[in-house]
Amino acid sequence: QLAGLAVIAFGLWLRFGGVMADFASEKKSPEYFFMGLYVLVGAGALMTTVGFFGCCGAARESQCLIGAFFACLLVIFAAEVTAGVFAFIGKKVAVQEAQKIYEDVYDDYMKNPGGKVNSTIYRYHLALQCCGKGNMEQQMGLPCPENIQKVSNCLVEIQNIIDADLHLVGIVGIAIAGITIFGMIFSMVLCCAIRNTRDMI
Hints:
Mean pLDDT: 76
Structural class: mainly alpha
Largest sheet: none
């Protein structure tokens, strides 16, 4: 249950509290990246629910509930492995989506440097701590934050941020997978112990 709540909190933080949350405030958003976070939150909710039923099964010493708990953990484990492979394969697509959003805003600003686009591109620069798409000529006239110590390429920063976020997701996924394996082992041990106790009686 605690692991499920931690996964939910982590997924919501990446969606609404991280740097990538700024990309969701416009009409376009990196749907592929956010879709993965929604799946993560859903998996956390499922884990919390399954954990509750596992506690009920252990408290009532019900082989049926504990067996169902084991089956649910097995499904969650398989889903985690599938999601990990899916995230690894789809990382490039998520990076391209986010970079395309920035490039569209950049092009809109170059066509009409003012108004709402000005504030949008500045917010991206502030969140990513970057300015422009690389060379000094492309940075001239752009609304860049004054406190940037090293001016960097925004497209590179987007890739770095998504890589870092997916790295965190991978660490959390491995930790949860380990907890899931222990849960399956202990549930089977408990189920066998309950059956042996009843056979002795």
